[in-house]
Known about the structure:
Elements: E1 6-10, H1 17-28, E2 32-36, H2 40-44, E3 55-59, H3 68-79, E4 86-91, H4 93-100, E5 110-113, H5 118-127, H6 130-141, E6 151-155, H7 159-169, E7 174-178, H8 181-190, E8 195-199, H9 207-216, E9 225-229, H10 234-243, E10 247-250, H11 255-267, H12 273-279, H13 287-293, H14 300-306
Parallel strand pairs: 1-2, 1-3, 3-4, 4-5, 6-7, 6-8, 8-9, 9-10
Amino acid sequence: MDTNKSILFIAENDRNFLIRAMLKSLSDAGYHVQVVPPEVYQVTMIEHHADFPQLFIIYLEGSENKYERFYSYIKQLISEPGKGRHLFLIGNPAEITTAYKIIPADCVTQAFQRPVNTEDLLRGLRSVSVEYRLEEEKRNEFIDIDPGRKTILLVDDDIVQLRAMQRWFSKRFNAFAVTSGMEMVAFLKKTPVDLVLLDYEMPVLSGLDAFQMIKSEPATANIPVVFLTAVDDKKTVMSIIAANPAGFFLKTMPPVILVQKVVDFFEHPGDRLADLHKKHSLAPYDPNYVEELGGADDEPEELYSSGKGAR
């Protein structure tokens, strides 16, 4: 059995309608799902089997204090070196916050609020599969680097968003893409880039943590990093400014404008963080470029007129 397609689904009540619907969706997507209650002995009975799953989903419900011993045990399983296990949490905000007191956030691949969108869950599961990692590595390997273009690295855990951005930016740049901060660090060790566009809101290793890792290494400390964020509330903006990146752009802006802002970034290297954001928030763009970018699948002219863009 392919352990990359095998899931240990942990739930107190597997007769719950939402859980049953989720299990069916997982099965239809080709996953083999074993359902167990949150009890240590139930997992220890299968832990040493050759087909023991690498993917864990905990459906949080009720009092987490009741299962503190079990969650501590799961933390040990996930943290075991060399096993390549991944943990996903599903629950309401309070349940997820409580779970993080027992299972550290760096042990959790992704957390989803209930009711979870099954497509988002499947996307998260696929993003950690060996096949997906190899596919992404090949995708980057076959990019022909044009020495006359700037090279950028896109970092985003949302696979659909990431691939869309790679199509948009490939019209103007050598555009590489990875799905996590750790992949970013590994990529930068072997490939020089002129700019990193880094998602600020990422699970496990956050954008801020990834940024600090880049700046802590002498070999990468001078690479400019621009944060991409889907939220622009005061707290988020102040947190970004405090980190002192090269800039920050909103993911919600239309593709044409987002790409144009990166073009402007290279054309105005002296602009700093807040000034750059303010100066180019309504930056003019070349209509000929709109037509050029329109060769992508995302119909950017329509996106520009409707104000759509990021998911």
